[in-house]
Fold this protein.
Amino acid sequence: MKEKHLTTNQAVPITDNQNSLTVGDHGPVLLQDVQFIEKMAHFDRERIPERVVHAKGAGAHGYFQVYKSMAPYTKAQFLQNPKKRTPVFVRFSTVTGGRGSADTVRDPRGFAVKFYTEEGNYDLVGNNLPVFFIRDAIKFPDMVHAFKGAPDSNMPSSSSAHNRFWDFISLTPESTHMITWVFSDRGTPKSYRMMEGFGVNTYVWVNDKGKAVYVKYHWKPKLGVHNLDRHEATKLAGADPDYLTRDLRDTIAREGEVEYGLNVQLMDIADELKQDFDPLDATKTWPEDKFPLMPVGKMVLNRNPKNFFTEVEQAAFCPASVVPGIEFSSDKLLQGRTFSYADTQRYRLGANYLQLPINHPLAPVNNHQRDGAMQIGEFSGQVNYEPSSFADGMLKEALSSVSRVNRIEGEVTRQKINLTNDFAQAGERYRSLSKIDQEHLVDNLIADLIHIDKPIQQRVIENLIKADAKLGKSVANGLKLK
Ligand code: HEM
C-alpha cells in the first residue's frame, strides 16, 4: 500500500509543512504560496457562531429501548417494540455561560436527546429542572439578555449574582417556582450522570385510533440525583472548569455505559381545565400523586464522540423535530420554541445543516429541496417539483394514518393565561425539601442577592414571601432587610 502523506485540500502533495515560500531565507512571502494561503484561510474560518444559549456542552452516543409497547398511547414506531434499539445522540450543557465557561456554575443544565428513528429524527430537548423561568416565548430574548453579560461591559460572563438577572426575575413573578429549583443544589449537579432530565413543555401523544393524551417527560439517572454544594461548585469552577465534561467522557471510556430511565406523566385532554393550575404552563409541574410516573424505557450512553466539532458543536436539536404519534400542545413556550431552534441553526450552521452526519436522519430523506450553501446531495434529472407528469416513479405523498381531530377556536388576542397561580407551587416545592436542602436554598439565595441593589432585593423578597413566608423571611434576615 502507498504510504499516506500530507496533502492540500485539493489532494496535492505537501513536501514542506515547516517553511513559507519566500524570496531568500528572510522573505518576503510570495502570494503564490497557495499552500500557505489555503492553510491560513481555513484556520481563519475554524470557528462558527456559538449557540446563543447552551454554548458549553458535552455529548455522547448510545441507544434507547422501550420496556414495553406504548401502542395504547402513541403510534410512534420507536416506542412500540421492546426488542428494538433506537440509536441516540445526547448533548448535556450549561445555559448562560459562553463556550469556554466553567461547568459547575449555578445554572439549569440542558439535556437534549436526538432519537434516530425509522420514521425520522425525534428530538427531546429538555433541561435538568422540571419548570422554566417564563411561560411565553416572546419573553425569551429579554430573559437571556438579562441573564448574560451587560451590553456595555459584557459582565458577568456566567453568574447570576448581578442586578440585571435579579431585576428581570423580581419583575417576573412566574419565575419564582424556577428560582426554588435553580437555587437549590440542583443548580449545581455533581455529574451529568447524576441529574434528572425533563421535557418541561407539554406534548401530545396520539395513538393509531387518533386518540390524544397530554404527556410530560422525565429522565431518571440510574445512579440517582447527586449535587454539589455551593462551596464545592465554586472551588471546582476554578480548579477544573471542565469537571462535568471530563466526568462523562472518562466514565464512558472507563466503564462503558451510563444509563437513564425514561418516564412519562399522562393527562386526559378533557382534564386540562379541571386543575387548579394551567397544565400547559411551563412554570408548573403536574403533581405526581395525581399523575403518576409511567416507566417507558431506558437510554444507555456507551460511545464518546471522536471529533468534538463535527459531532457535538455541529449537533442541532430542535423541539419541532417530532415523528408521527407525537404532537405539540398549545403551551405558548413550546410554540415559540418550535420556531426558534431551526431558525438559529440555519444561521449558526447554514441552510443544509441537516445534511451533516450528526444531524442527518437514518431514515431516507426525499423531497425537492435542493441547492443552498454546501449542498452535498446527489440528484439527477430535470424534475425538482411535485406534481409532475415527466418522471416515472415520482415520489408521492406518504399515506397518512388516522390523526387526531384538534379543533381550536378563540379570539385573536395578546393576553396572559387566566390561571397564572404564580406562587403556590414555589411554596410547595420549598416545604417539600429536607431541612438541609431548605437551608442550602436560603444560603444560595443570600450568597447571590447580597450583591444586589436594595430595591431589587426587596422585590425578590416580596415574591418569595408570597410563595412561603418562612422562605422569604429567612432570606430577608440573611440580607438584613426588614
Ligand atoms: C421560548 C423558550 C425558549 C427558546 C426560544 C429557546 C431557544 C433556544 C435556542 C435558540 C437554542 C440554541 C440552539 C442551537 O443553536 O442549536 C437553545 C438551546 C437549547 N435549549 Fe432552548 N429555548 C427555550 C426554552 C428552553 C426550555 C424550556 C428548555 C428545556 C426544556 C430548553 C432547552 C434547550 C437545550 C437543552 C438547548 C441546547 C441544545 C443542544 O445541546 O444543542 N430551552 N434554545
Q: What stands out?
A: The first strand starts at residue 57 and ends at 66.
